[in-house]
Amino acid sequence: MVGRFIKENPLFSIALAILSVYALLPVWSVHYLPLLDWPQHLAMVTFLRHGGDPQWGFDQWVMVDHKVATYLSFYYLSAWFAYLMSVTAACKLVLSLYLIGTPLAAVYLLRSFERGPWPALLTFVVVFNWPLYMGFVTFVLSFPLILLGVGLIQRMSNFMTRPRFYSLMVVCVLLFLTHALSYLILGAIALPLVLVSMARRPRKLLLACAAWVPSLVLFGVWAFALFTAKPTNHLMNYLNPAEAPKSAMRVTYRPTKVKIAAIQENFNEGFSGNEDKGIYETWRHWLLVLIAVGVALVIVRHFLPRPPRPPSTIPWFRPLLVVALIGGLYFALPLEMLGVWPLSPRVVSIAALLAILAIGPLFRSRVLNALLFVPVFALALQTAKLNRTKFEAFQKETVGLAEILEKLPRGRRAYGLIYYMGSREMTLPVFMHFANYYVVERGGMVGFSQFHYNIMPAHYRNIALAPYPGQSGEWRPRRWKYPIYGPFYDILIVRGYGVPGITGAPRGALQLVARRGLWAAYLNPSAGKRRPLYSFREQIHQAKVTLADHGTLKSCGPFEKGRFLCPHQGWSWVGPYETRVGGVHVPCIWAHPVTGKVVRIRFVGVPRGTSIAGIYGIADSGFPGRRPFGAPVELDLFADGKKLSTLTSRTRPGYDSFDVRLPAGTSKTMDVEFRIHTKRDARRHFCFTATLFQNRAR
Length: 698
Description:
- The chain is α+β, with helices and mostly antiparallel strands.
- The chain has 25 helices and 21 strands.
- Helix 5 (about 85-110) packs parallel to helix 9 (about 145-160).
């Protein structure tokens, strides 16, 4: 079949081969790709490939989560290729399947709708798009599957065969395992298309729907597990749990005028100059020219005598229905829904790919078609060349990173302080996740990565291992302060300023390993002396919270909407929170005291450790005008019923640290209780952090 196609379309096949090679050059000509989330994907694949190898030190930090989930196709396919080559090369190979697979799938789509193959050349421009620059690799990898799915549905409407039935079934399963949003987008297109083409043929309609059953079962299993997951499986410190339900249900729309104005940005915005805008404008104008030529030729053929040709089996409106459906999705979908962002902007690339169906039948002459698509061929070459130029120029900004990584010890805990996230070549903050290259090259773990997310195929064994400075903390590296997060990380990978002063680290606490240009790496020797076992904030939902009033215990709870509400006032609650304490943004446990009463937070069956450390203080909101106000708050720490320490907060803005040693015991678990009280509760916005540690054996 392929040989026959090449024989029938020699000029197009030559153009397709040339553009396929040029489309791959930007990816394979550089080492570091300027794609925002790309380092995170590499880190996940590195673990899947090298997990279990003690040299990489993954097993003490990360574990595989064997479950039905989306994204699996990219990660596991890349991991399999990584047995034959490096992880970076393996991921690039899978990315290459997208770059050349999308135009090939477009050819299949066009032939399914009895269109000529030449409009598929337009997709070589679209494959370099905004989602790709964002690093949404699993999302763009689904594009060929969407095109194949629409093409298969159209062919099944003409003639149902067993191979087509099973092919659609496989495509739907692969699409779900690649990206759930793309799976839903194909469903939104397929359902009206199936109803229009098969409404009068119920048997064929049932068979077409039956092809979706396996993927729907997988989707249902995944969705049920996702929405019924227990709080312990979520990373609470990404978002205040009190606000999480509101965020999950929040639906954010953009006005239609804004969506229209943002089409170019959502199409291929990625470069610091205006080159990407020029690419988009040329592509759009020539698409309109091709549509106009196609319409004109259809009209001319209708009124002028023409040689007999086989009648079309496809109604003229059916391909336009597909284009209208995907275009309508862009305007109908919100920007954000169920905590997923961005929804509608992602549709632009898929709409651009399917827009080729709007190009009517063109010339039967191979030469005339080739001449008409010469500008498209030139534009595709220019797009690939521009991307290669930008990608190669970007490499100059990464100079020094590889040398620094080589000098770092393997299998440790690293955190990236990327103070300069931007690039001279790209508009996005492409360096934000570059600390993940430590995992790719040296193993271990990094402070912010996709291992935090419960929807990924692997996650951290213990949330306490990698505390993260609050919601969107990766965007705000200045939040990272040594007194709060220093005990958790052995290595700091920096791009930008000198670290000790900004982080508040004491003199001598951090040791400079190497500095090259904007890149630097520091060792934190004290962090390796003990291991975090248990984060009280992340497990607060498992605590028992009561309000003691002269010997009477009144229950606070149950844990609802991210908090325990005590029977006093609306502000007397206990739960995870994010606030500023002493000018520092801190994810902490909010525990507002009540005058003359004691708030008791009890944790039962906590792993036995050697010390509990953290910070405590009154939030800045508790000091009107930042002046001393009200009475101090006292925090009593108990272990197995024995009082170990009493901590007294300041009556002025600021926080204090504590590090309390725990008594030795014979059992493997213990009970820990925090008691909070004050003589005057007005504006005592008390917050504290606490982590259980275990000293490492020498």
